[in-house]
Specification:
This is 4Fe-4S binding protein. Keywords: 4Fe-4S, Iron, Iron-sulfur, Metal-binding. It comes from Clostridium aestuarii. Pfam families: Fer4_10. This protein is an alpha+beta fold. It has one domain: Alpha-Beta Plaits (2-Layer Sandwich). About 10% of the residues lie in helices and about 20% in strands. Strands 1-4 form a two-stranded antiparallel sheet. The longest helix is centred in the first third of the chain and has 5 residues. It is globular, with a radius of gyration of 12 Å. It starts with 5 loop residues before the first strand and ends in an 18-residue tail after the last strand.
Amino acid sequence: MSKTWYPVIDITKCIECGICADFCSHGVYEKRENHPVVVNPEECVHGCKGCSKQCPEGAIEYVGDNGQENGGCSCGCCCEN
């Protein structure tokens, strides 16, 4: 897992749907008071953008993202799609 790559939720865009928390199988998120919170950033797989691809508002960005496509993370979460 990664300490140099993890999601950050833009709370000004987040509609509190929780799709990211439901989607992530790595335990990065937790639903709290109807909104997701990044509680285990070190569990995020480097290069995985699966949760942000599910976010209907584009509220998720990543620390460590240099803006280049890396072809997926191959963590099995289907983020390559």
